[in-house]
Amino acid sequence: MPRYFNTAGPCEPDRHYMVPAVERLPEARPLIEQLGYFVLHAPRQSGKTTTLRALAKQLTAEGTYAALHFSCEGGEPAQDDYAAAERVVVGAILHRAEISLPLELRPPPVPAAPPLRVLLSTLALWAQSCPRPLVLLFDEIDALQGEGLRTVLRQLREGFPDRPRFFPASVVLCGLRDVRDYKAASGGDPQRFGTSSPFNVKVESLRFGDFTEAEIQSLYHQHTEDTGQVFTDQAVRHAFELAQGQPWLTNALAREVIEKMAVRGPITEVHIEEAKERLILARQTHLDSLVARLMEPRVRRILSPMLEGGFAETLDITFDDDVSYVRDLGLIREKPIRVANPIYREVMVRVLASAAEQQMTIDPRSFVLPDGRLDLPKLLDEFAAFWTEHGEILTSRLPYHEVAPQLVLMAFLQRIVNGGGYVDREYGIGRGRIDLLVRWPYTDTAGKRVWQREALELKTWADKKADPLAQGLKQLENYLDRLGLQEGVLVLFDRRSKGVPFEERGRFEEASTAKGYRVTVLRG
Q: What does pTM read for this prediction?
């Protein structure tokens, strides 16, 4: 069977194109050899299970260790039922050992033991009877919660001093989040475990990284070697720019082009861009799982000011646990703090603005001029009228109401260009603005396909702040310089508690920057 780009479940070398799994976690081997207990965490669909399975298989095949990978996911319903959580974990170990290990390395029957001692007793007996040191890789550890999680961690800590002869030599706990000393895993609210840590024996906390551009090049080249179909250098570079190396997105872009779009011949940057749009519109399971997180208060606290462009650069992200939580979900990156990749950013905005878009009855075709260009002045006029009439209600009803005006305008733009052009978004983190570039294709008088480009900058006027016009003109000028354009649009939303009444908004002004660039100012 031909290999393919996998977007569901662990990867297998004989069936899937894949980056060599064990090579993605070079730090693990030294820690195992030091008999370390350590944590590995990364967002979903980043290759954790693929890597852990490959590592366990390799360690066992080498003949030095008896290594077993298994999942704790079945223990999620147990919650605070610690006895049930124990049984699930022990059952998962026995099940996977029967599948993955030769008979002489499998655990003996579970010994009789009271609750809170079953896992400890089972692992201790197995370590004594096994001819090799045990290495256990607990996947989805943060599916366990509350007392169920605590009892597993405490028993591992209790047995730790007896390794490797009377307890597993090395233990890897893998999940979505770091297993912190004072928090329940899997994204719950802060929950103290008690005065002592349930897992204070870890020597390291590793975070699984995304693909590098070179790894994406190597991954896509495997398809070329198998089929002869080439990914151009520009296509690989664009895939990296869009996904920022996120493994599921990297595979999904390639799969969309090859299987869904059925492209024949060289795969270009244009194909990757189309695949991105198709993925966003389809909002497959992976993207939907991210969307479900957007309404969580801890996620909203971080993302809302980011989307507005006003997130303080001085925030201490090292000790802010909400930032760590959103980062561990894979939604943001750090240094500087920003949305993890352009695809996630686009999905977030479209989802948050969808309620506003449903209120719009505009016909996108009415905004196309006879020569095929986008009628930007008409677009701005229509938006100003829409905002004056509906803005106050939408601002109160939309999620992330702090950034509702920007979301409404972006929804309006998206409704008009959807299926024909693109809206590229940049967030000036810490600088209080959103930069938008509308790209619209049309055919010029010579019959050549060209792109109309229109730049917009969105800012808000908050209480106790001066009119942002001067600052906005300077920032827009820099944006226009970067784009090579000489005119743009500055939209200033009045968010003051005693600002201009909505019925008086939607006014236009003409202005210019220090370099003489022409600017249309819309006060909303």
A: 0.83
